[in-house]
Amino acid sequence: MEYFVQQLINGLTLGSIYGLIAIGYTMVYGIIGMINFAHGDIFMIGAFISLAVFLILTSVLGFAFLPVVLLIVLIVSMLFTSAWGWTVERLAYRPLRGSFRLAPLITAIGMSIVLQNFVQITQGARVKPLPPQIQGGVTLMQGSTEQGTILVQLSYMQMIIILTTLILMTGFTLLITRTSLGRAQRACEQDRKMAALLGVNVDRTISLTFVMGAALAAVAGLMFLLLYGVIDFYIGFLAGVKAFTAAVLGGIGSLPGAMLGGLLIGLIEVFWSGYFTVEYKDVAAFSILAIVLIFLPSGLLGQPEVEKV
Amino acid sequence: MTGTGETLLSVRGVETYYGKIVALRGVDVDVHRGEIVTMIGANGAGKSTLMMTICGNPQARTGQIVYDGQDITAMPTHEIMHLGIAQSPEGRRIFPRMTVMENLQMGAALVDPKHFENDLKKVFELFPRLKERIGQRGGTLSGGEQQMLAIGRALMSRPKLLLLDEPSLGLAPLIVKQIFDAIRELNKNEGLTVFLVEQNAFHALRLAHRGYVMVNGNITMSGTGAELLKREEVRAAYLEGGRH
């Protein structure tokens, strides 16, 4: 029981990070029907910007009060990463709008390689460590097994990650469902031509979608950095593939689907590692995806393709 | 109310292409303030293309479109819509996964929110059915309800010029009558200028002050609604057997 609860906490933490990245995939797909393969690398860039800002604040400027430092890092990283997301869309995808479907997809793969190599060249290929910043936690349960006592711990880091994700996702859901901005965004998603006929600036709305996705990826990047303490130019690839899987599992195009998918992929990975074997955790995640898609081709919460016209 | 004579929309020598295929071959149309003008023609004549060209999607390759004294020929669609033109387009294009209310809110996106409640009330007076469906998703409405919603959505933007593309398409005669009555009412009571594209020539010409006939991307005839109704060519091509 204690072991199960511990794995559950770990899974939710990992799933939160996947969920935040998955939102970027699902929203971009929803609005322009394209898989933005460079999104994982935007997450990676978010992690690098976070690290850079953190080091500048603590080592160069000498700030010491951690909560304030992290808050500044979060905001600055979201801003800069958003700018990256915006630029990628503006340079690589917008000129191809209206061309054949595969063109932006191929460009996205190219963009992903460009971003990876750019970071590899400018930041070096070696991993960048960051010593643990937030330590300690609370013990939730205690139990004993034949092997000895077992503690269920919720670290402060995990608490921060889960809480931040919860707040961001709530805020984001409200933004999309309740505000006029979110309404315009959904209108573009459902019928771009009509949205323009109602005075919505479609290009700007699409840019904004990329900006929002990148901002959430930046938060995920910072969390990844703090949780694992090492980053390199390649972290975007696997995290991106996992988050993409999460988006597909939840139903690509669906916002709650991306969140649910992210949590599920996180949980599957952690439980598989916890009860079976770590080596096959990725296989487990992708197998579950395959099985779900056989029975629910549009994902868990996805909209079926057919609409009454 | 018949027009004041002042031109609100003037289309001059407009040619529109889809790639290499020509859809409009030099179209001239005038709509005066306070008028109901209709464009009748068969399927594929280019009527909807004209509607969309006025809204800048696709843009006219040659010719000029002037609205309210302003050249809008090369303006992007969303900017044109800021000038007080609203369109209820071909196929209605209701946002299927938004509620009726949200669809109407989208219509009011460019309007000062202080008008919203009042405008909403007016739309519901015109189409009481929409009020009953307020929380329902657009995609689940019947064809007639969707058409009402499309017009209601267009009205929510407080247009000076309302473009209606085949509001009668696929609807039962009783609903068509309701919708045409609503258009007449809006024109009479609010002085709304309406440009209406229709295949249902009989109803459209009876409703409109003036009409044009489009064949294969060209305007072949024009005149008052009553005149066109009497013309032998119009009767033969668009009315015989089609009267209901």
Walk me through the structure.
The complex is a heterodimer of chains A (309) and B (244). In chain A, a hairpin with a 2-residue loop joins strand 2 and strand 3. The model of chain A has no long low-confidence stretch (mean pLDDT 92). Chain A contains 11 helices and 4 strands; from the N terminus they run ααααβββααααβααα. In chain A, 72% of the residues lie in helices and 7% in strands. With 309 residues, chain A is mainly α. In chain A, helix 2 crosses helix 8 and helix 3 packs across helix 8. Chain B has 244 residues and is α/β, with parallel strands linked by helices. Chain B has 2 domains: 169 residues, P-loop containing nucleotide triphosphate hydrolases (Rossmann fold), CATH 3.40.50.300; 66 residues, no CATH class. Chain B is built from 10 helices and 10 strands. Chain B is globular, with a radius of gyration of 17 Å. At the A-B interface, helix 6 and helix 7 of A face helix 2 and helix 3 of B.
Write the layout of secondary structure elements.
The complex is a heterodimer of chains A (309) and B (244).
Chain A: H1 2-32, H2 39-60, H3 66-93, H4 102-123, E1 128-129, E2 137-145, E3 148-155, H5 156-178, H6 180-190, H7 192-197, H8 202-228, E4 230-231, H9 235-250, H10 255-275, H11 281-295
Antiparallel strand pairs in A: 1-4, 2-3
Helix pairs in contact in A: 1-5, 1-8, 1-9, 1-10, 2-3, 2-4, 2-8, 2-9, 3-8, 5-6, 5-8, 6-8, 9-10, 9-11, 10-11
Chain B: E1 7-18, E2 21-32, E3 36-41, H1 47-54, E4 62-67, E5 70-71, H2 77-81, E6 85-88, H3 100-107, H4 116-126, H5 128-132, H6 143-155, E7 161-165, H7 173-190, E8 193-198, H8 201-207, E9 210-215, E10 218-224, H9 225-230, H10 232-239
Parallel strand pairs in B: 3-8, 3-9, 6-7, 7-8
Antiparallel strand pairs in B: 1-2, 1-4, 4-5, 9-10
